[in-house]
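During the reporting period the student researcher (J.K.) took over the structure-prediction task from the postdoctoral fellow and processed the backlog of single-chain submissions. One of the processed entries is reproduced below for the supervisory committee.
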Amino acid sequence: MNTRDFEYFLELTDTRNFSQTAEKFAVSQPTITAAIKRLEDHFQAQLIIRDRRHHEISVTPAGEQLASHAAIILHQLDLAKQDIAWDQKSKIRFGLPPIIGSYLFPKIAVDLIAAGLMPQLETFEAGSAALLDQIKDGNLDFALLGASGPLVDPDLHVIQIDTAPFVIITAENDPLARQTHVPFATLADRQFITLSEGFVHTRAFSWFQQQHTFTPKVVYRTSDVLLLKRLVTQNVGIGFLTKVAIQPDDHLASLKIDDPKQPAFTISFVYRQDRVLTPTMNRFAQILSTPKVV
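J.K. obtained the following structure tokens:
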């Protein structure tokens, strides 16, 4: 039995067709038949039922069971191949969402330089949802991820390193700027500029919307945080951002939202549970996990 047999078997359970499976792998149909026979002999169970009269096949319960485990095995082997290849390059693949990168990376850069880790670092910028997928697929070693609450995932080491509230932002000359806090319910008549789908903010904004009987008037959505803030500065609308995204030189007013039990923006340092860390990666993880980065 070899891993190629698993690949043939999984494809066959998907296509339910020996000819199509053989064509995909550029092998003969008897090659696929022999692979299935080897698996059935090894596991001492019938995996496939062939209905030659109707030219159909079906997967037995034992076959469904094997398919589930084979998919995990092949995924783990693919992760191992990627991890070993990157370990030999002595590189650290690090994912950073734009907001978290601007807020947190300057705080850790000095320590990374002092530890001699900066030359080994390859950073990738994307939203937290996309970076989470890349972590799980083995395309990244580490990431800082934002979430609208504690991040929980059994496949990941998750170290929460900071939290911040979501706030309403306005231009400094907006009448709301004279306030320090505001109930979300009083914003029914205001126009909003928000971040696009895929950002953590979208989920948090939906939470506030669901607590009230009105639908906020969103006049523009963007994936560019800087553009959002510029539009707010020009009084195009008010914005909804995490507090960590607001800098003094933005010349914006930020207002605390009064609603109780609201979600908070959490920042977590994550990597896969099954990722074996090299000494270089361990040094990097220690720097990112220390409380002084907050």
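The committee noted the following: The radius of gyration is 26 Å.
J.K. will present the remaining backlog at the next meeting.
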